[in-house]
Specification:
Number of helices: 3
GO molecular function: hydrolase activity
CATH superfamily of the largest domain: Nucleoside Triphosphate Pyrophosphohydrolase
Helix content: 10-25%
Order of helices and strands: EEHEEEEEEEHEEEH
Number of strands: 12
Shape: globular
Family: Belongs to the Nudix hydrolase family.
Radius of gyration: 18 Å
Keywords: Hydrolase
Organism: Propioniciclava flava
Pfam families: NUDIX (PF00293)
CATH class of the largest domain: Alpha Beta
Strand content: 35-45%
Structural class: alpha+beta
Number of domains: 2
């Protein structure tokens, strides 16, 4: 994945780099003398993705922080395992409708069964991230959605077991979109037996009652209200 920074939308790049395994794009941008103002766009497919960020010089001392912190979910007796290195590009969405926000429950195939997150998943070969979100939302919840805008990106790095049991040095890069569903129905999981156990619409007043994973909770705190306001202004 290529990260491109511009100081004005449509302007010439002031920075560009390939995101290495385990790197946090926001941290790399900072260490090049800039801060991210907001994400702008994503182009290409999983083989040649390019993410453009609006950036501004921060004029602060630059102290390299080194690699992103790695979490480990391995047992003490597994610490000697040689993990498979994997960077996974995925796309997710804050999907809103007149029924609330769409949420998915993690299954027992994951490290966080019973916790809740946002619908989405890995980007398939030849697929662009927006198409990934639409496909995954339908597979995990049965909803048909409209993509509104590219919202954010997250980077997470840990060592642990994949759903198939393989020990991985895993770098998750998540592209986050805002989306709406104009004809919400009761949520249903079509991809049975995968990493999604169930799904549902969560009314705005009940968002704080849900056991969200940390990444989804952070996204909701940062973007939840603005996405819900967008839905209200558009009259859904």
């Amino acid at each position: 994945m290529q990260i491109v920074g511009v100081e004005i939308p449509g302007g010439a790049p002031v920075l560009s780099f390939a995101l290495g395994h385990g790197e946090d794009p926001y941290q790399v941008v900072w260490e090049q003398g800039y801060r991210v103002t907001r994400p702008l766009s994503v182009t290409g497919t999983v083989e040649d993705l390019s993410v453009t960020l609006l950036v501004a010089e921060h004029h602060r001392p630059i102290v390299p922080r080194g690699p992103q912190k790695i979490r480990s979910t391995l047992r003490p007796d597994e610490s000697g395992c040689e993990p498979v290195v994997r960077q996974r590009l995925a796309a997710y969405a804050l999907v809103v409708s007149r029924r609330g926000l769409l949420a998915t429950e993690f299954s027992s195939r994951t490290a966080v069964p019973g916790m809740w997150g946002l619908p989405g998943g890995g980007i398939d070969p030849g697929e662009n991230p927006a198409a990934t979100v639409q496909r995954e939302v339908y597979e995990e919840t049965g909803q048909t959605i409209e993509i509104l805008r590219f919202l954010d990106m997250q980077s997470d790095h840990w060592i642990g077991h994949s759903p198939t049991g393989v020990v991985e040095d895993f770098h998750a890069v998540r592209l986050i979109y805002a989306a709406r569903c104009d004809a919400p129905i009761d949520a249903v999981v079509h991809d049975v037996g995968g990493t999604t156990a169930s799904s549902r619409w969560v009314p705005p007043a009940s968002l704080r009652e849900v056991s969200w994973i940390n990444g989804s909770r952070a996204l909701l705190a940062k973007h939840g209200q603005s996405v819900l306001r967008t839905l209200h202004h558009q009259g859904a």
